[in-house]
């Protein structure tokens, strides 16, 4: 059986009895959020990130940051305090669960100058 052919269209015509109105909240971009979360390890003090999507990759990254020693709180904004980071070894079992390849490009620690996975 052949797959049906889908032709591109220039416009959609929507008909109906009621006018649509309202707004739709848009979540932040996962890959950008993951990079900013990793970069928070290099920032002195607390880092506040807003509009971070509550999806599995971001939740896993929170676990990774906590394993490294960062204090993380996520209410409306995501707050990361990397002042007590004790390790530069990201647990492989957590990192391997993330789908985003960008999450694996960790910043090098300015004090240790290295990054690595712990297997």
List keywords for this structure.
single chain; 119 residues; alpha+beta; 3-stranded antiparallel β-sheet; two-stranded parallel sheet; 5 strands; 23% helix; disordered C terminus
Radius of gyration: 20 Å
Number of helices: 3
Mean pLDDT score, rounded? Answer: 81
User: Which sequence of strands runs across the widest sheet?
Assistant: 1-3-2
Measured as a percent range, the helix fraction is 10-25%
Query: What is the assembly state of the chains in this entry?
Result: single chain
Strand content: 15-25%
Query: Which outline best applies?
Result: elongated
How does the major sheet shape up?
Answer: 3 strands, antiparallel
What does the model show?
With 119 residues, this protein is α+β, with helices and mostly antiparallel strands. It has helices spanning 30-39, 56-68, 92-95, and strands at 46-49, 71-74, 78-81, 89-91, 116-118. It has a domain at 30-101. The strands form two sheets. It has a three-stranded antiparallel beta sheet, covered by helices on one side. A two-stranded parallel sheet has the order 4-5. Helix 3 (92-95) links the parallel strand 4 and strand 5. Residues 111-117 have low confidence and may be disordered.
């Amino acid at each position: 059986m052949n797959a049906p052919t889908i032709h591109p269209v220039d416009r959609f015509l929507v008909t109906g009895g009621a006018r649509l109105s309202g707004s739709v909240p848009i979540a932040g971009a996962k890959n950008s959020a993951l990079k900013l979360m990793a970069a928070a390890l290099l920032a002195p003090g607390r880092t506040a990130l807003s509009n971070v999507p509550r999806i599995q990759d971001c939740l896993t990254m929170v676990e990774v940051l906590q394993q490294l020693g960062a204090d993380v709180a996520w209410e409306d904004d995501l707050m990361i305090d990397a002042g007590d980071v004790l390790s530069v070894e990201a647990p492989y079992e957590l990192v391997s669960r993330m789908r985003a390849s960008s999450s694996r490009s960790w910043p090098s620690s300015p004090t240790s100058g290295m990054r690595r996975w712990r297997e």
